[in-house]
Amino acid sequence: MIKKRLNIRMSGLGGQGAVTAAHVMAMAANRDGKFSISNPFFGAEKRMAPAESYCRIGIERIYDRGELVFPDVIEVFHPQVITMGKSYTMPFYSGIKEGGVVIINSGQPLLSEEDVQRLEDLNVAVFYIAGTELAIETAGTELSTNMTMIGSVAGITNCVSMEALDGALQERFGKKFVASGGTASLDEAIKKKFAKKEMLLAKNLATVKRAYEIAGEWAEKNKIELRVGNPAVAA
Amino acid sequence: MAETKSVIGTQNKKGQTYTDTWKMMNEAPRTPSFFTGSEVIKEALRRASCDVMIAYPITPQSEAAALIGELFAEGYIGDYFRGESEFAVMSQCAGSAFGGARVFTTTAGPGTMRAMENFPMWAGSRLPIQMIVTCRGINSPLSIQPDTLEIAYLLNTGMLVWHAETAQDFFDWILKGYMVSEEPDVHLPLALCCDGFFVTHTKDVVNLTPANMCLPPYDPYRSPVPCMDMECPPVRMMRDPFVMKSNYISYATHASWQQEIWAAVERSRKHSIHWLNGLIDTENTDADVVIVASGTAVSQGREAIRLLEDEGVRCGLVKVKTLRPWPEEEIREATKNAKHIFVPEFNVTGWLAKEIRATIPNPHRVHAGPHVCGGMTMPPEIIVSEIKTALGMKTFSLAGRGS
């Protein structure tokens, strides 16, 4: 499906970098010459508390902001979003548009039969990726889980290029960035973890790339197409 | 009379050139930057020749306050310090402004309410302080998300009240705001409001003026009331016995002064029109259906208009930029053709719809809503649904949030 606008809702827990992920995605889309907006949604900035972020990418100017009630893509950064209902929207897939995609960070299926049926009825594809394991394996830290989620959505939708993601990551982690007090300190924590910025950037990018390839292969195999473009031109 | 010399063209200690504000805002090249609203506040302040910034943490303005602290460390702000509470901050802002400084502060939600006593005092003292209000819920149970109820409380303080839709508005209006509020015939504080998070934490493209240009500094001797200095210390304000005594002269003094404050709000109208290119923006106001909104409700209205176009419904838009001064004539003119006027608002009371109803003929045309409150997002689909329902068109159910 080709759409003028791709709305991505990222549901995670505090400390996982969902807010950063949306910012990086939007920055990359902006670098690619697309229109984009990202914004977060959280209560108390607290680890393991629900945190959501939204990234809108399109081919025309985007005015819409705030919580993304009707997304095309939902990314679940942590199994507890589903298993413990740590989500601002219940069930976590509320509002997903027909033909959408759900990306879940888990090595095993988490959905009930009822959920599976409801998503099938909406022609929504579900992609599982063991994102945290992949982050630990590639970057050596679970703090790069958000990189696997960025890579996954980019691999399936091609809404941003790898070159733009590389540039956005450098921009984000190459300079001091304050999205919130909590996010700033997490950025510092991850920088310390990697000791050097260059190493941080290289490992994060490697994580993004691996997830991008895995997700891209899955999309190709399952004939999932969800792209940003002009539907009229494509038709 | 002392010789006056323009600073335009000279440089400040950071090497920025004091630039004619009109040229800086309208003729200087702009650089597109992908920034959060909080970062944009910082960038505006970098160019504002601000003397004093006073901070106190409250979400969602804390980031902006912290970023401006960095500006101070870099040497772009004259002085920067943290108050003991929001009430203290606003009192310290007053003290700084009495002392002749260009003052800036930021606040949000409950902080705005806690400091409320200061705002009529600022206006009454004719202090052109600029305060960013990053709106959030003010009621219990607590919410940190945007809810514009606090704006309703600011409308009658005597301050100028503007409501920004985007970070671009923020950047431009922070700088232009000083130009309006520091005019001798205005000289009033400005509450520059936005919907917290939806502007402050949203990353969007903003066109910035060159960082090596800055506003001319504030000249406190352009104040219409005696300027406080060592020859005329602040204590002078409370020393006149007739002001404090309860007698006819005292009442008459207060009454005439309050009228003068509101007259100054009215006098800001021409300056606001000049700098903001009108108090409202309009699109397709010849349509039968018109959305009138302020803040990010305008953005959500724009998306709703796109969705309605796909269904063959033509809809106009009125963006209200200034709430004080209130654009009464402009709104009356812009809505004269409308059969249905919708006023989407991020608050439960619908203060904007009430103001519009009190302004226009045939106020039954005004549909107060849709409303969201407590920090909830207003999906454009809700606006579409409200409009289609009013027009007798079939609309899909939004129950269950589309699931």
Word description of this protein:
The complex is a heterodimer of chains A (235) and B (403). The N and C termini of chain A lie close together (11 Å). In chain A, the strands form two sheets. Chain A has a six-stranded mixed beta sheet with strand order 3-4-2-5-6-7. A two-stranded parallel sheet of chain A has the order 1-8. The longest helix of chain A is centred in the last third of the chain and has 25 residues, at 197-221. Chain A is 45% helix and 19% strand. Chain A is α/β, with parallel strands linked by helices and 235 residues long. In chain A, β5 (73-76), α2 and β6 form a beta-alpha-beta unit. In chain A, α1 (18-31) crosses α6 (162-174) and α4 (131-139) crosses α8. Chain B has 403 residues and is an alpha/beta fold. Helix content of chain B is 38%, strand content 17%. Chain B has 15 helices and 16 strands. Chain B has helices spanning 21-26, 37-46, 62-74, 86-98, 109-114, 118-124, 149-154, 167-181, 236-239, 241-244, 248-276, 296-310, 328-334, 351-357, 380-390; strands at residues 17-18, 31-36, 52-55, 79-82, 103-107, 130-135, 160-163, 190-195, 203-208, 213-214, 280-283, 289-293, 315-320, 322-324, 340-342, 366-367. A seven-stranded mixed beta sheet of chain B has the order 4-3-5-6-8-7-14, with helices on both faces. In chain B, α2 (37-46) packs parallel to α3 (62-74) and α12 packs across α15 (380-390). Mean pLDDT of chain B is 93; it is low at 399-403. The A-B interface holds A 23, 26-27, 30, 35-41, 43, 63-70, 89, 91, 93-97, 118, 178-181 and B 34, 36, 38-39, 62-63, 66-67, 144-146, 197-199, 201-205, 296, 298-300, 302-303, 376-381, 400-403.
Brief sketch in words of this structure:
The complex is a heterodimer of chains A (235) and B (403). Chain A has helices at 18-31, 80-83, 113-121, 131-139, 145-157, 162-174, 181-194, 197-221, 231-234; strands spanning 2-3, 5-13, 35-42, 50-58, 73-76, 101-105, 125-129, 227-228.
